[in-house]
Amino acid sequence: MRSRLFLCLACVLLVVSSRKLSGSENLNVLLITADDLGLQLSCYGETVIETPNLDRLASSSVQFDVAYVAQASCSPSRSAMFTGLHTHSTGQYGLTNGGFSLHPHLRDRTIPNLLKDAGYRTGIIGKLHVAPEESFRFDYRPRGNTREVRWVAEATEQFLQESGDEPFFLMVNYSDPHAFRRPNDRTRWHFPPQIDGLPENPLPPGPETLFSFQQIDTPARRIRTAGYYNAVQRLDEGIGMLMDVLEKRGRSDDTLVIFVGDHGPPFARGKTTVYEAGLRVPFLIRWPGVSKPMRSGAMVSTIDILPTILDATGVKLKGELHGKSLRPVVQDSEAAWRDYLAAEFHFHGGSPFYPRRAIRDGRYKLIHNLLAGSARPSTGIDGDPAYRVSQEPRYDGPR
Fold first, then answer.
1. What's the whole-model pTM score?
2. What digits encode the pLDDT tens for the residues 40-59?
3. In degrees rounded to 5, what are phi and psi of residue 44?
4. Domain boundaries defined on the chain
5. Top-level CATH class of 25-395?
């Protein structure tokens, strides 16, 4: 009898242990996005600025070298994260203010709603920007400016304190490094050197702040790009504060952390395009008990976020997804994975409609402009004049 009881107890302990190691027993989820953040981080090779806090997170995570968003526009990109589907299937083909929204049958199949049904406390700090917003079931949604990164850390601590021992899903969406409109002239966009005293030492404009994917040099361009870099530095300080809160509350070891940009920088040839500067983003994942700190060459996409979270939390979902759980590649750098990576574009606002498709493998990339010759794409984004400047005579000829 004693030996039988001992055997039963050993089996129970083995099951509990295996669940803990698999990362599926009440694992919390922290999903962090940064608005308009491309690869301008020192852990991704940036040399103009340093991003020590994101570098520190990368050093404890799997850092994917090639990660795409589904579409380089905010609402469509986020709809793909929430649903695990490419944007041509979500209904959110453009921004919410363009009149687009999730298809009705997907509104109960988003990350917060699925986890809410599984007993999770859900929260979001910062923008949602996927419609209809009332369909998302968040228990906690404070109002504030996420460029004020100290406030973000305070709001996060409040959420964790209120959550107690409940499993939680928290999405933190930083507005940096998005450009924003001047308060005295809503038609003009800018990047202020500092907000709330951060960064402490703003980067001055100069030739080194220019983006290589544009090759445009004017005094105004230097100011704009330096401002972008300063926004990235402020974001980095915010990430350090956020991770400190997670550690302080004792949740680092039982929380899946995913960090990603929602698309590339708000500059011509970046955001709203299917060029690499628009689609490629930083993507970090730290999965307790599963992932190993490493760099990975696996080609991943933000459509993989939902299936990864469902796998990590043990939540089931009926129906097909375009993305798949990242479990194999965060465990083994040599694991078999996809051979091709695809992305698309439909709308940003309500117009123009200029659909594009992109697909790449490890070496080559193909871009297809579906209406080439019969329609024209938008040539500017968030006040960036680079395309107009590039048409000046001094830029004639090959470069």
1. 0.93
2. 999 999 999 999 999 999 99
3. -105, 15
4. 25-395
5. alpha beta
